[in-house]
Structure formats: C-alpha cells, structure tokens
Amino acid sequence: MDLGERSIERAEEFERLQRDAAVQRIRNNLVGLGEEFCLGCGDKIEEARRMALPSATRCVDCQTKIERGR
C-alpha cells in the first residue's frame, strides 16, 4: 500500500467518524439528550444545562461569549 492509498484510507475513516458523530448528535437531540460535549471548547456540558435546554450545543461560558459577540 502506498502513501496515497493510506492517505485516502485515513480520510475515509475520518469522514466515517465525523458522520457517525453527527448521527449520534442528531439521535441525542431527538430523544432530548442534547450535546454531551461543548462544540466550542470540547468540555462536558453540565447535566443541569442539558436537562434545562436539551438543544444546547455549547457550555454556558462558550454560549455567553457567542451571545456577547466575542
């Protein structure tokens, strides 16, 4: 297997992982679980926030920064 084939395989695997993660996020939102990890910083979103706002995709800090335009 040459470098080009390995690069293609890695790209395909990355794409599959991204797709699987997106499907899982959609499933979580459909059942009211929301995101487990913040899309901004990657930290875990507190359970209280997830319960209060199941559609939350960011932690309070990251969402606040976005809303304040930072």
Unreliable residue runs: none
Count of individual helical segments: 3
Biggest sheet overview: none
**Tally of domains:** 1
> Whole-number average pLDDT?
89
Our Rg estimate from Cα atoms comes to 16 Å
Structural class: mainly alpha
Number of strands: 0
Span between termini: 46 Å
**Residues in helices, as a percent range:** 55-70%
Keywords: Metal-binding, Zinc, Zinc-finger
Protein name: Phage/conjugal plasmid C-4 type zinc finger TraR family protein
Zinc finger (dksA C4-type): 38-62
InterPro entries: Znf_DskA_TraR (IPR000962)
Walk me through the topology.
Blueprint (H helix, E strand, L loop, with lengths): L2 H28 L16 H6 L7 H8 L3
How would you describe this protein?
With 70 residues, the protein is mostly helical. It has one domain (3-67). It has three helices and no strands. The protein has helices at 3-30, 47-52, 60-67.
In short:
The chain is mainly α and 70 residues long. It contains three helices and no strands.
Features:
single chain; 3 helices; elongated; mainly alpha; 60% helix; 70 residues
